[in-house]
Design brief:
alpha/beta; Immunoglobulin-like; TIM Barrel; 8-stranded parallel β-barrel; 7-stranded antiparallel sheet; 10 helices; about 25% helix; about 25% strand; globular
Length: about 500
């Protein structure tokens, strides 16, 4: 691509895709590695509050502003006995966690998680064990969390110091039950029947809850997407969301193809949204089920056997990925997809929130924000209202995996109530800056409020405790708007966010 090539981006507030669900800016916490212990909960840390929660981690999570957090798993969920994690801490059992071959102390459980969510002002999203667990135990947990304190399990919650219901709204019906690695793995029909019966009992306790069905754990499963169709045909009218999981990688060290992964994300969404439409039509249903992308992230560097097996220790160091610039650009594009497919993607949870494949990394004394922290934060803080169908004319480049791809990956939001709009742009070029002409078609800003930009010359560059600001967004001078147009130079390997107020 030549330096003289130019891109055009057209923003029209009349061309809306759908409202953006705030829940696409959500996180995930699993009892895995150091996500809980030494992550959010670390009584021995100098940063711990009176309840053992890390105040520095809480501050970082408030800044990133997750709207909900999924808990307690993950693979851990399918062997978890929720009663182990409630009541007096000195009476809670130590157990072997078979999922990650670790020792679980149960010093952090359901009520501690609820308290943590209140601290960072986020909605709790709880999972029920449909591996080794029963439908009765799933229903009992809903009673414990949401019922008034006049029956057995609700009274038990009151005895544990919580007389008022937790009113947990979002519930996951198991985790990755299609996977042979899963404790209590089930075939699609078996899972669908069990999930349907669990859903009935859980809703009888609280009809207001929202339920998330297990979908395929990744798009390369031999049962995908037939698993999804089979489970949905049984459960469609009993659930509100269908889950999807995906972890991106650059094992081939092919940065050009890696930066084109948005094409694969879109294909995954297309397949599952098509499955939802098919099942709705087949069942003659008037009910809508949406997608919950409740595990997503980059994960491939920390995937050796020692990254999955804790050797029966407490809080082992498992899957502690170090993220670089190209990872951050992939994450930014992923979130572009969330906006571009806001019609069907209503929940998305970064896996995970602290230490384990996470934007945040802790030591006993400190905290580090990885490169991926910043695009998640910028989207979460600035994308609101409706997603816009942005028209983009971009020079193209060649990839080994996806063929011809545009250099730019773009999304936008517009909040009619506030007039605020945000434009999110990734330049995939590894070598060339790209001039971009911005054209506002209906409402236009008089001035651009702010421009934030992350970029670098080395796609493998990363943040460390020694150099924590190596890959961070910087605020740059905004371009001048004239007659609804502005021009901006997009550096190679860059993520740019343009914040405006449209009139």
């Amino acid at each position: 691509m030549s330096q003289s090539s130019k891109a055009q981006i057209y923003i029209d507030t009349n061309r809306t895709i759908s409202s953006i669900s705030p829940l696409v800016f959500s996180g995930f916490l699993e009892h895995m590695g150091r996500a809980i212990y030494e992550g959010i909960y670390d009584p021995a840390s100098p940063h711990a509050d009176a309840n053992g929660l890390r105040t520095d981690v809480l501050a970082a999570l408030r800044e990133i502003n997750y709207r909900s957090i999924r808990y307690p798993g993950g693979n851990f969920l399918s062997g978890y006995r929720w009663l182990d994690g409630v009541g007096p801490k000195d009476q809670r059992p130590r157990r072997r966690d078979l999922a990650w071959q670790s020792l679980e102390t149960n010093q952090f459980g359901t009520n501690e998680f609820i308290d943590f969510c209140k601290q960072i002002k986020t909605e709790p999203m709880l999972g029920v064990n449909l591996g080794t667990g029963t439908i009765q135990e799933a229903a009992d947990l809903v009673e414990y969390c949401n019922a008034p304190a006049d029956t057995k399990f609700a009274q038990l919650r009151a005895e544990h110091g919580y007389p008022e219901p937790h009113n947990v709204k979002y519930w996951c019906l198991g985790n990755e039950m299609d996977g042979p690695w899963q404790i209590g793995h089930l075939e699609a029909r078996e899972y669908g029947l069990k999930a349907h019966e669990a859903a009935k009992m859980m809703r009888w306790h609280d009809p207001s809850i929202q339920l998330i069905l297990c979908g395929s754990s990744n798009s390369i499963m031999p049962t995908y997407p037939d698993w999804d169709r089979t489970a949905l045909e049984i459960c469609y009218d009993a659930v509100d969301y269908h889950s999807m999981h995906y972890y991106a990688n650059n094992r081939d060290n092919d940065t050009s193809s890696y930066l084109g992964l948005a094409a694969e994300f879109e294909s995954f969404v297309d397949t599952l949204s098509g499955t939802l439409r098919y099942v709705k039509a087949k069942r003659r249903s008037k009910h809508d089920v949406y997608l919950s992308w409740d595990e997503w992230n980059v994960w491939y560097k920390a995937t050796t056997p020692t990254d999955f097996r804790g050797e029966w220790t407490e809080a082992p160091h498992l899957s502690e990925e170090v993220y670089n610039l190209e990872d951050a650009l992939v994450v930014a594009q992923w979130m572009n997809v969330f906006l571009r497919r806001a019609d069907v993607i209503k929940i998305a949870c970064v896996a995970q929130s602290v230490n384990v494949i996470s934007p945040l990394h802790t030591t006993r004394d400190g905290i580090l924000k990885h490169s991926t922290y910043y695009p998640i934060m910028l989207f979460s803080q600035l994308a609101s209202g409706a997603a816009l169908d942005v028209a983009v004319k971009s020079p193209r480049y060649e990839t080994a995996k996806f063929g011809d791809m545009p250099l730019l990956d773009v999304s936008a939001s517009y909040d009619e109530g506030t007039g605020k709009s945000a434009l999110f742009i990734v330049n995939r070029s590894q070598t060339d800056s790209l001039p971009a002409e911005l054209n506002w078609q209906s409402r236009a800003p008089q001035t651009i409020s702010a421009v934030y930009q992350m970029s670098g010359t080395d796609p493998k560059a990363f943040n460390s405790f020694e150099n924590p600001n190596n890959i961070v967004p910087v605020r740059i001078a905004p371009p001048v708007v004239q007659n609804g147009c502005a021009e901006l130079l997009l550096p190679p390997l860059s993520f740019t966010v343009i914040e405006t107020e449209l009139v």
